[in-house]
Amino acid sequence: MRVLAALSGGVDSAVAAARAVDAGHEVVGVHMALTRNRAQTRSGSRGCCSIEDSGDARWAAELLGIPFYVWDLSEEFEERVVSDFLSEYRAGRTPNPCVRCNERVKFDALLERGLAMGFDAVVTGHYARLSGGAADGHPGDPSNLRLARAADRAKDQSYVLAVSGMRGLSRALFPLGDAPSKAAVRAEAEARGLPVAAKPDSYDICFVADGDTRGFLERSLGSRPGPMVSPDGQVLGHHDGYFGFTVGQRKGLGLSRPAADGRPRYVLETRPATNEVVVGPEELLRRTSMKATDLVLLTEPGHESTWPQVSLQVRAHGRPVPATVTIDEAAATLSAELHEPLRGVAAGQSAVVYGGPDGDQVLAQATIA
User: Residues 176, 316: one domain?
Assistant: First the structure.
C-alpha cells in the first residue's frame, strides 16, 4: 500500500514508520505543522508538534530513506481544536483537546489530503491494536474492524482514538499496538540508529506553551469575576472566570475559609449562565449514571442496544468501571448505569465503552452531556 507516515518528531512515530517500511509499504513521511507561533519551540519536548520536532522528523525520514514533507495544518488545528477547546470551556464543559486533535486533524485533515493525493492509509505511532481495514490490507473497508487496547496498557491510546470512527480507522495502521513496552520501542529505535531514541515523551496541551491552562483560558477568554458558591447557594468566595475551573478540581480554588467540617472542597459544577462555580464535599462528585451524545459506534452491524457487562472510561488514563450501557443509534446517544460510583465526571469529556471477550475491545465512544 501507499501510506503516509505521520512523523511527529518523537520516537514512537519514527519506529512506526520504520516498521511500515519493513512491511513493504511505499512510505512517505509527513510532519504536521500545527502552529505558526514561535513560542511553540521548546526544550525537552514538553508538547508535541513544535517547531523543533520538525527537524527531528526530517532527520528520522532521511535515515529511513523515505520522502519527507512538512504540511501546514495550522489553520485546521486552530479551527478544529483550539477554537473548540475555548468554546467548550466557555460553555462550562471540560474538553479533551487530544481527542479532538486525533479526530479532526491527525485523521480527518491528514486523510482528506492523503486520499486526495492517492494514498491508501496513514501510519501513526499510537499505542492501540487494530485489525481489519488497512491493517489487514483492505483500506477503506470497515467490516471486521476491531480497535482494542495496546499490549502495553500503560501506554494505551485507544481512548483518544475511539472518536475517529470506523471510516477513519479503516485507513489507519498502528504498528506499535503489540509493542510490549515503551522501553522496547526505544531500544528498537536505538538499534535502528534513529536519533530520537532517547527523546523525552511529550505531555501537556501542545498549544499551551507554558503549561498554564488556566492562564491560557484567561488570556483567550478574558476575566469575568463571579461568585464561588456552596451547593445551597451560600457565597464562599470569588473567581476571575468560571471557565478556569473543571469538575473535580481541588487545588487553586482561592478560598480563605475552610469548610465547617474541615474537609476539603472540590469543584462540583460550573454555571456559565450565572457565572458561578459550585464547590462542595468529595462525595457530591460521585456519579452512578450518565448520558452522552454524538455516539460513535465501533461494533459490527446487528449489535444489541444494551450491553449489561461492559466497562466505561472517561479519562485518557482513567480507571474503567463496570457498567450497563444502552445506546440509541437513531438519536446518536448513550446512557450508562455504573456498577460502582465514578468520581468527577464532567460534561464534555469523552466516554469510551470497552467490552468483548477480553474486555479490551472498543465498542463505542460518545461525549458526556
Answer: no
